[in-house]
Amino acid sequence: xxxxxxxxxxxxxxxxxxxxxxxxxxxxxxxLFMQQIITGLTNNLTPEQNCIAQTKTFNLIGSSTPSKNVxxxxxxxxxxxxxxxxxxxxPTDGSSPIFTVAPYVSWGxxxxxxxxxxxxxxxDNVPYTITIRVWxxxxxx
Length: 141
What we know:
This protein has helices at 22-42, 47-50; strands at 53-61, 71-74, 83-91, 104-110, 113-120, 127-135. By secondary structure, the protein is of the alpha+beta class. The protein has 2 domains: 11-42; 48-135, Immunoglobulin-like, CATH 2.60.40. Strand 4 (104-110) and strand 5 form a beta hairpin. The longest helix is centred in the N-terminal third of the chain and has 21 residues, at 22-42. The mean pLDDT is 87.
């Protein structure tokens, strides 16, 4: 992603807009927002820093029986996740990374642990590296 060319909006940029005190308040909010975006993008902001998310990579030996492809880990947040994204499922033994069935991850959450209950679409005895991202709903006061 390329950073914005303009880093600040000034009152001179809005010289043809109607007069009033609203300009200063609007420009303050816009410039503050732009500064935060530029700072975040300049420092390689990650989904974990920008969202309520946790990314986990793990290894397992695949099975064509989904319920044998299980994994569990402690979560960063102590309330129920909203969902998960499968970022990558890669065989690590040189096997073809082309799946004949789309992999699907079934999951559950109990007492601060994210549980992969099964992964469909894997091949027997093939080692995999799997990366998933777990998302939580935003905290609203």
